[in-house]
Design brief:
Number of domains: 1
Helix content: 25-40%
Number of strands: 6
Shape: globular
Number of helices: 2
Radius of gyration: 13 Å
Strand content: 35-45%
Distance between the termini: 7 Å
Structural class: alpha+beta
Order of helices and strands: EHEEEHEE
Pfam families: DUF2653 (PF10850)
Length: 94
């Protein structure tokens, strides 16, 4: 099992957005949140614009991060976002 911290999730999103928009990861800002009605989400600022990512987008970024940083191939079903003191991601891999 791999546990990603909130900082790693934010890094994953920054890398993901930067790659899609062809900008530097340091030019991306992320704020993670959890609400009872909508679940996990993130507001992302890049190139002077704001966009909201839903849980599926967060998991997509996490999967790409696992592949590039940990060299682990995981699937959506193996990733669970959790909220305790902060948002973390648990990845059930062998």
């Amino acid at each position: 099992m791999i546990i990603l911290t909130m900082d790693e999730i934010i890094n994953a999103i920054c890398l993901h957005i930067a790659e899609r928009k062809q900008i530097r990861p340091t030019d991306v800002q992320v704020e993670l949140s959890w609400e009872e009605d909508t679940g996990y989400s993130a507001e992302v600022w890049a190139q002077g614009r704001s966009q909201f990512l839903v849980e599926a987008n967060l998991i997509e970024a996490i999967l790409r991060y696992l592949q590039s940083e940990y060299e682990v191939r995981a699937y959506r079903e193996q990733v669970t976002l959790e909220l305790d003191e902060e948002i973390t991601a648990r990845v059930d891999v062998e």
